[in-house]
# Entry
Amino acid sequence: MTNTDTGELRRLPLHDIHEAAGARFGAFAGWFMPLTYPAGVMKEHLHTRQKAGLFDISHMKLFEVRGADAAAFLSKACPFDAQALPAGVSKYTLLLAEDAGILDDLIVTRLAPDRFMVVANAGNAESDEAELRRRASGFDATVTPLERVFLALQGPAAEIVMKSVGIDLSDLVFMTGRELPSGWFVTRSGYTGEDGFEIALPVEDAAGLVERLLGDDAVEWIGLAARDSLRLEAGLCLHGQDIAPDTDPVEAGLLWAIPKSVRSDGAFVGADGLRDRIAEGSGRKRVGLKPDGRQPVRAGTELFDEKGTPVGRVTSGGFGPSAGHPVAMGYVTRELASPGTRLLARVRGNSLPVDVVALPFMPHRYRKGA
Amino acid sequence: MAKTYYTPDHEWLRVEGTTATVGITNHAQEQLGDLVFVELPEAGKTVSRGDVVVVVESVKAASDVYAPVDGEIVSANDQLGSEPGLVNQSAEDEGWLWKMKLSDESQLESLLDEAAYKATL
# Structure
């Protein structure tokens, strides 16, 4: 997924703005991405939780789904009830393989009876597009990839900042969205556990909005490194690490995203596979992991029980600047998945104590509806 | 009079007599970003040039720091246990990593001086 040959990497439309802001860049999912800015990952992370962080997430892919059968098609393509989704509401859902392996996780927002916006991960953009087109066969529905700048403004000051640049989004609650008169697409959502917005807009409008947002003292650029530590503290999965084609929604703890009626009666791709997985029960479970002490435990680290038997593996791990300690998540056998269970992580020949803990590490501070 | 040497791997050594204080350069700490953990060596351990002596961990990743010359570890900077960020604040002074007794001073001749190191950046 990661391309280290920078010659083949795609540059963000706002690359020059990031360079002028002093960004350090690195490869992610085929893109040359700002990893940190001069403040550094620790300050960027804390700034987002205290004020408002501005993220360029234009590597993520937006698809517009349109047509008389758009809702029926999406209910086939993904395990959710698109027909029942009201306009202006967003839903976290999955793209499953026939065996219920997770091909990607998506946010789908209904714009109108026959129009939806789908947000997909950068690394899966091409395969998702092909897969969605395949699943659209026989439906009156088109899947159109959009060329947009995609920005996220995250943190407790996000609503006030948007208002200060003339965009009042106070009517939106978490996981709702709409198109603005300018044609921009905005949802109240994000990947940090904080309140905030994600804004997709035409490339030619983007520099102007960025300049206005950064004109507010509460706003700073935040790089991909802090985006990762923020989402990990919030217990949110990264596709390709914490969820992947070889994990399913049962063991990943993502059944909450699939309504009960859809699990039992839905005709989505992967329905039989998912029902089998639910009936069997998963042998392992995704859990939060808190290393004892200051030493981080990284993705790929093997986990053992106190007798030395292998019991699982870390899928994401690092340091949580707001938590103030190392944070991680991973998969462990079901019997050892209860919070409070002590495991051992093998790091460079040493066994480090790690406790299974409930996720998230930092409470979500979304603006929920009444 | 102490003399300071550098390696192409972004380490510095300050040599006084037959003892060297070793750390990573300011350039290296900038590349790594905020450090959150430093795994320090035990005193008395014998190391050869190229051995991993210290692992520095940033928010995102772990990086190895190698022995620039052969010798024996005399002490480690224990203050980094509670304040790993000292390496970011003062990489080439208070954020030193370990002290070692040199076993072959002639190895110093293969290291870089400050001007030669800066030319590699």
User: Anything to note?
Assistant: The mean pLDDT of chain B is 96. Residues 3-104 of chain B form a domain with the OB fold (Dihydrolipoamide Acetyltransferase, E2P) fold (CATH 2.40.50.100). Chain B has one domain: 3-104. The first helix of chain B runs from residue 26 to 32.
